[in-house]
Amino acid sequence: MTYSVKQLANIAGVSPRTLHYYDQIGLLHPSAYEDNGYRQYQEAEVYRLQQILFYKELGLELKDIKEILDRPDFDPLQALEEHKHALESKATRLLSLIDTVEATISHLKGEHPMSDKSLFKGWSEEQQKEYEQEAMQTYDPQKVKQSQQHWNSYTKEQRASVMDEGNRIFTEMIGLMEQSPEAERVQALVKEYQDYITASFYDCTPEIIGGLGQAYVQDPRFKANFDQMHPGLAEFASEAFQHYARQHAEK
């Protein structure tokens, strides 16, 4: 299929003037010029324009983009894989920033106080504790107080150890994501997490485990932080936790 400047500009979301400029600097030449001087673009130019826009999104300057695309060994498929990885990382970073903005807005409104350190953290001790407390308020406010008392009694080293243990459990769970959330070892990890919460924060019941599992996918902050560890972890952990809750609620 052949596109005019206007047609290509419309489908790519750029201006005709941009395409004219890309032609002038040798970044994107049309496949042909008509007798009246109008530019015509075909499939090869469409894909090249896509690459240009991807690299621009990643912050590269036009001269650097041209140098990359003009390399004899340039591999479009490999470039797309790299774009995908880079954009996923950028998306995770943006989600973390959105979380921080939302928390700061809440803080400035006087709804949920946060420390100065939390203003710059995406996955911090303070944020982790805040998430757990919010989930517990659904069931028993006394558990929040119990959690606060435990946490405040810990030294800096003990707090780091507590956080490391929680991360260890989910890191191991990531390695089991090819299995079913109902698999024996996955469910054993959920039991370890229940015991970990009970020992470190508050008495964690199967009902609470189920509630946490729902929060992992329903609360954008939980989901963003889990997906930062590994894409799909939020859904996997949610299914595992809710299955554990159902199984143990029946006993």
Could you characterize what this model shows?
This protein is mainly α and 251 residues long. The chain contains twelve helices and three strands. Helix 9 (184-200) packs across helix 12 (233-249).
Short note summarizing the structure:
It is built from twelve helices and three strands.
Runs in which pLDDT lies below 50 for 5 or more consecutive residues are: 115-124, 135-139
| Biggest sheet character | 3 strands, antiparallel
User: Average pLDDT across residues?
Assistant: 81
Class based on secondary structure composition and strand pairing: mainly alpha
Oligomer description: single chain
Q: What is the tally of beta strands? A: 3
Listing every helix as H and every strand as E from the N terminus to the C terminus, the arrangement reads EHHEEHHHHHHHHHH
Q: Which helices and strands, and how do they pair?
A:
Elements: E1 3-4, H1 5-12, H2 16-24, E2 32-33, E3 39-41, H3 43-57, H4 62-69, H5 76-108, H6 125-137, H7 141-153, H8 156-174, H9 184-200, H10 206-218, H11 220-229, H12 233-249
Antiparallel strand pairs: 1-3, 2-3
Salient structural properties:
mainly alpha, 70% helix, 12 helices, 3-stranded antiparallel sheet, 251 residues, single chain
